[in-house]
Design a protein that fits this description.
There is one protein chain. This protein has a single domain, classed as 2-Layer Sandwich (Histidine-containing Protein, Chain: A). The relative contact order is 0.11. A hairpin with a 2-residue loop joins strand 1 and strand 2. The chain is built from 3 helices and 5 strands.
């Protein structure tokens, strides 16, 4: 009798595990599709706002943007991404590139005693 009880409990536990894992995979698939739809909506919203390519990733309403843009373009892209319905947060990984005109106006050369943003000299 005890053996049958143990086998019945093991079968029940296995069935619950199997049901839960199937349900979990279905939920993951639904969330993955929702994340991709949100990323596509953000791509559409930021189209034409910057001259460079911007990579868009999304997970649970958090959108990460990565690319190289000027400061003004970055601001336009961030504002457009934040305006998309369903976006909870935007992670800005966009690097600022200097325009050619501005680079010509500033001196370019050795930073001297500075390394990694820490001043080492007097």
């Amino acid at each position: 009798m005890r053996l049958l009880t143990v086998l019945a409990l093991a079968a029940l536990a296995g069935g619950l595990y199997h049901f839960g894992s199937r349900r979990g995979r279905a939920l993951q698939a639904r969330l993955g599709r929702a994340d991709e739809r949100l990323a596509e909506a953000v791509r559409s919203a930021i189209a034409g706002k910057g001259s460079g390519r911007v990579d868009v990733r999304s997970a649970n309403g958090v959108v990460a943007l990565r690319g190289n843009l000027t400061a003004a373009e970055r601001d336009r892209v961030l504002a457009a991404a934040l305006s998309v319905s369903g976006v909870v947060q935007v992670t800005n990984l966009i690097e600022i590139e200097e325009s050619a005109e501005r680079l010509g106006a500033e001196p370019i050369g050795d930073l001297g005693p500075m390394q990694s943003g820490i001043a080492t000299g007097p």
